[in-house]
Write a structure and sequence with these properties.
single chain, alpha/beta, Rossmann fold, Ribosomal Protein L25, Chain P, 3 domains, 7-stranded mixed beta sheet, 29 strands, binds adenosine-5'-triphosphate, binds magnesium ion, Gln-tRNA-synth
């Protein structure tokens, strides 16, 4: 698996290459700046891969900086989760973890510097007034009545703000730029607001908090970041980013470059909306396998390498588009196709009685764990008179198109014999209890004489079972772009999780049971003909193994893109 940005000729690499041409000694430095207000998702992975991989390619460094300027929304539990997810992806940030809050004292000094230069003022307008005065894209803004306060007055008031002498919303610090700017962001943006909430890092030390735009560029500069990469929605913020750096006495002037966010089919990536899904108990939590958080994907069976492969495949551009979900699935399927152990499981069992076998008939077959990779070894399966097959592999009513087991017709049992269905046994409610079949003992590993090979189905001997739960996932939404919809909750797919009670091969189950007590190692399987599965390490218990379906076997993305 290639974990680096293979074609390092995306537009950001071209910019960096030029920068290196101008300055051979450039000390390349990036950062990943999450807000600790939720878990990381596949969109963040795009940004993480970009920042950390570029640091590798250019012999540079990448910082992890928590952008913790809003104590109302942040929570310490998210900090640990974010660190764990980055490590899980296989990245290590440079040195210590950084926090924007670490720089609050410095940021305060820079704010005072702007005031002293007559470039910032304390505004006591209400939120609504500030909004109204800001104007719109078509109308210019209006100056605040507090805009022309003296430097001394502003200094005094800002200090009062810091001391907690104003209440929330009563005053804020604004940059004095241009209320007529065609960039609305430049119409005297708010730099500091008052929040009387304890901060997870600085506790009760501060009651004024810098806004993102003020804190971000200065934190980048303090850390010596050279290339500050962010998503396209910050394009307009760049003029403010540069204005603040130019008007404060900072030494480093990092450059901001924007790339398009990842939008993924059937997925919600907005943390705010993901929180709604959790609060409304539509999903189990941040690690529900139906959402594309990194912990959800991990639980569903995605590996770090498959996620990196996906990020590499989507590339870095300035075009906003919706990426096919099947492309993400392709990446994990391709990997598991090479690595997952193949075994048989029956999700919805129905009994087969092979009437011509002795009651104690027992054969042991040694079967490969992978058809093309002998290194993965073999395992034993038991063949007996009574076995289970998948309910959906039998059809009672005659259907010419149906190619699996039907009355009077044959199928091959995987690794074993050809059988023919002759009779059905039903209970008083007309439910099938068992199918009575003839087992052709001349067909082990042999093509039937004068006949076509019949379809192959999977099975498990009743003597070789361990009960298990299987969780089959489908998309959480039944429309391709739920993120676009305000009423996204009206598009929930009620069948996004289906649970089945069936059987796995006993020995495989016993091995998992041993591991489950030792560590939470995830095991990956291909249950033949059904899909790729992994053990659900959260809900599984020794006596109740649960498997999550990672992905089905069919690869529509590959079929479509194979010849491109
Ligand atoms: P949300 O809107 O879901 O809250 P966010 O952008 O506020 O997301 P942050 O924690 O601020 O989330 O994001 C940290 C970094 O990850 C930022 O640099 C941001 O641009 C990047 N990022 C977030 N979402 C995506 C995405 N969908 N695609 C690419 N990068 C993303
Ligand atoms: Mg954000």
């Amino acid at each position: 698996m290639n974990n680096t940005i293979k074609n390092n000729n995306n537009f950001i690499c071209q910019i960096i290459n030029k920068d290196f041409k101008k300055n051979k000694k450039l000390s390349f430095y990036t950062r990943f700046p999450p807000e600790p207000n939720g878990y990381l998702h596949i969109g963040h992975a795009k940004s993480i891969c970009l920042n950390f991989e570029l640091a590798k390619i250019y012999n540079g460094r990448c910082n992890l900086r928590f952008d913790d300027t809003n104590p109302l929304k942040e929570n310490i539990k998210y900090i640990q989760a974010i660190e764990d997810d980055i490590n899980w992806l296989g990245y290590q940030w440079n040195g210590n973890i950084h926090y924007t809050s670490e720089y609050f004292p410095k940021l305060y000094e820079y704010a005072k510097e702007l005031i002293k230069k007559g470039l910032a003022y304390v505004d006591q307008s209400t939120k609504e007034q500030i909004r109204e005065y800001r104007g719109t894209l078509n109308t210019p803004g209006k100056n605040s009545p507090y805009r022309n306060r003296t430097i001394e007055e502003n200094m005094e008031l800002f200090k009062k703000m810091k001391k907690g002498e104003f209440s929330e919303g009563e005053a804020c610090l604004r940059a004095k730029i241009d209320m007529n700017s065609s960039f609305i962001i430049m119409r005297d943006p708010v730099l500091y607001r008052i929040i009387f909430t304890e901060h997870h890092q600085t506790r009760k030390k501060w009651c004024i908090y810098p806004m993102y735009d003020f804190a971000h560029c200065l934190s980048d500069s303090i850390e010596g970041i050279t290339h500050s990469l962010c998503t396209l929605e910050f394009q307009d913020n760049k003029c403010l980013y540069n204005w603040i750096l130019q008007n404060t006495s900072v030494k480093n002037h990092p450059k901001q470059y924007e790339f398009s966010r990842l939008n993924l089919e059937f997925a919600i990536l907005s943390k705010r909306k993901l929180k709604v899904l959790i609060e409304k108990k539509i999903i189990q939590g941040w690690n529900d396998p139906r959402i594309p958080t990194l912990s959800g994907l991990k639980r569903k069976g995605y590996t770090p390498s498959s996620i990196k492969e996906f990020c590499q495949k989507i590339g870095i551009t300035k075009q906003n588009n919706l990426i096919e979900f099947s492309m993400l699935e392709h990446c994990i399927r391709k990997e598991l196709n090479q690595t997952a152990v193949r075994t048989m499981a029956v999700l919805e069992p129905i009994k087969i009685i092979l009437y011509n076998l002795e009651k104690n008939h027992k054969e042991i077959f040694i079967v490969p764990n992978h058809p093309n990779n002998p290194e993965l070894g073999t395992h034993k399966i038991i063949f007996t008179k009574i076995i289970y097959i998948e309910r959906s592999d039998f059809k009672e009513k005659y259907d010419q198109k149906y190619k699996r087991l039907k009355l009077g017709e044959e199928v091959r049992l995987r690794y074993a014999y050809i059988i023919k269905a002759e009779k059905i046994e039903k209970d008083e409610y007309n439910n099938i209890i068992s199918i009575i079949c003839y087992c052709d003992l001349n067909t082990l590993g042999k093509k039937p004489k004068n006949k076509k090979n019949p379809a192959v189905i999977h099975w498990i001997s009743v003597q070789n079972t361990l009960p298990a739960e299987f969780r089959l996932y489908d998309q959480l939404f039944n429309i391709k772009n739920p993120e676009e919809k305000k009423d996204f909750l009206s598009y929930i797919n009620s069948e996004s999780l289906i649970k089945k009670q069936g059987f796995i091969e006993k020995q495989i189950g016993i091995n998992i049971q041993k591991n489950i007590e030792k560590d939470n190692k995830i095991s990956f399987f291909q249950f033949e003909r059904i899909g790729y599965f992994c053990i659900d390490y959260l809900d599984s218990k020794k006596e109740n193994l649960i498997f999550n379906r990672t992905v089905s076997l069919r690869d529509p993305w590959n079929l479509k893109n194979k010849f491109k």
